[in-house]
Design goal:
Layout (H helix, E strand, L loop, with lengths): L5 H8 L3 E5 L6 H9 L5 E5 L3 H9 L8 E5 L7 H11 L5 E6 L17 E5 L5 H8 L3 H11 L3 H5 L3 H19 L9 H12 L8 H8 L3 H13 L3 E6 L13 E4 L9 H24 L3 E7 L5 E8 L2 E9 L7 H9 L4 E6 L6 E3 L2 E5 H5 L5
Parallel strand pairs: 1-4, 1-5, 2-3, 3-4, 6-8, 10-11, 11-13
Antiparallel strand pairs: 6-7, 8-9, 9-10, 12-13
Helix pairs in contact: 5-6, 10-11
Length: 377
């Protein structure tokens, strides 16, 4: 199945190496194999396959391959310097696509050995926009499907919800048992699992690591490290508060969401907010990776309890204020308060299953599915 990044990556492969990251089983390998069909000859090598690993270590791949795909190469010791040499010494006209998850994301922060040699993309689960484009369904039907199944390809495309649930249980167990061990020690696995279970019940609320630390009898510093691991593995992501020009804002208290909405424990309203958060992050990452924009996803909450679910920013200014509602079309007090403070930001209240769109006191009240389908990815 074609994905939303296919054409972008294909275009960039003609100029530089492309590094593609994202959660496990989000479709990176499928996307790579789909792109291989656009080349007269291509070769796929996975570090986790012993035969492929030998080819990678000996650099004995086909020099005539027009596209070389390397998967999970970040598991090789000293992979950045090695990859620099591969890119600089590759055959003329040979495109290079590198994919992976977990530690692969650290290439963005660490070292300059690959500087100027790559474009980076982050692949996300399906959104309302992508599901509509792929399946040719109405936005409301797409949103309902994603709320039920989550946005990962296998549960999304499963024949029924039972198969989706079986996939999710196996997926979670594999992540904890295999991937987490790359980052932590074996005796920490049970605590990590409990931490994830608690996070599943705390989606959409400001996260107090100190409170959870008391429940688990560990230090807040340990939980901060666990949270960093879960983010590196693309299991959860955090949304930080917007603090520019807002007096009395609560600082350094993130909200946590799951890449897989199916992991969320809570009512339909919480699942809706998690799904919206994931689609907004996908939108922001697409603007960053494809267009070079300094976009950001935040939320607003002041010490006196006034809150707006999400705030999109760009170049240090707010562009959108977004509140999610399951059925309430009355303008949200938080939006009403901040709409005057940020007159250049679009204030929108997205409502699930809204019958009639309205515009009240500077706030656009819009159907959630119809608004989400208008995001960039």
């Amino acid at each position: 199945m074609k994905r939303y990044l296919d054409e972008r990556i294909l275009n960039d492969l003609s100029a530089k190496m492309v590094v593609l990251t994202g959660p496990r089983q989000v479709g990176k390998t499928t996307l790579s194999r789909h792109l291989m069909g656009a080349f007269s000859s291509a070769q796929y090598l996975n570090w986790d396959v012993l035969a492929d690993r030998a080819v990678l270590q000996q650099q004995s791949w086909n020099p005539r391959a027009k596209l070389l795909v390397m998967d999970e190469i970040h598991k090789m010791r000293g992979w950045k310097g090695w990859l620099k040499g591969v890119f600089d010494g590759r055959s003329a006209g040979q495109a290079l696509l590198v994919t992976g998850s977990a530690r692969m994301e650290t290439f963005r922060q660490g070292g300059d050995s690959l500087a100027g040699r790559y474009f980076a993309f982050r692949l996300h689960p399906f959104s309302v926009r992508e599901w509509c484009e792929q399946l040719h369904v109405e936005p409301a039907d797409a949103l309902d499907h994603l709320l039920e199944r989550g946005g990962f390809p296998e549960p999304c495309l499963a024949d029924d919800s039972v198969q989706a649930d079986r996939w999710r249980m196996q997926y979670f167990n594999d992540l904890i048992r295999e991937d987490v061990l790359e980052f932590s020690r074996l005796h920490e696995i049970n605590t990590m699992r409990l931490f994830v279970e608690l996070l599943r019940e705390r989606v959409s609320t400001p996260l107090s690591l100190a409170s959870i630390a008391r429940d688990l009898a560990v230090s807040p510093a340990t939980l901060k490290r666990y949270l960093d691991i879960l983010q590196a593995l693309f299991i959860v992501f955090t949304v930080q508060p917007w603090h520019h020009n807002i007096a009395r804002a609560i600082l350094q208290t993130p909200k946590v969401y799951f890449f897989d909405t199916g992991m969320v424990r809570g009512g339909q309203g919480v699942r809706l907010e998690n799904a919206v958060a994931g689609m907004l992050l996908k939108h922001v990452h697409f603007l960053q990776d494809s267009m070079g924009k300094s976009a950001g996803l935040h939320y607003i909450r002041t010490k006196d309890g006034v809150e707006v679910d999400f705030a999109l920013g760009e170049e240090g200014r707010l562009t959108h204020l977004i509140e999610c509602k399951l059925g309430d079309n009355k303008p949200h007090p938080g939006l009403s308060r901040f709409v005057g403070q940020f007159p250049d930001a679009e204030a929108v209240q997205i409502v699930y299953g809204l019958r009639q769109e309205e515009f009240r006191n500077g706030i656009r009240i819009s159907d959630a599915a119809n608004w989400l389908v208008g995001l960039s990815a």
